[in-house]
Specification:
- By secondary structure, the protein is mainly β.
- 14% of the residues lie in helices and 35% in strands.
- It is built from one helix and five strands, in the order ββββαβ.
- A hairpin with a 2-residue loop joins β2 and β3.
Amino acid sequence: MAWVRFTEDFDFRPTRSSLIAYRAGMQLSVRRACADQAIAAGKAVTVKAPARKKSDGEDPQSGEA
């Protein structure tokens, strides 16, 4: 997986019968093959993955630590 920002609309075809449409401005994690094709076509640039949120150690279900 790779993080990219699409600079132009890009259609990725993982198989012959499926299509995933990415719109300009979207920034997300995509399959490496998609990232490679979009970057090669000049329609995306790599970006740094966003920082993960740190857990405060509290259980979200019970509220206990």
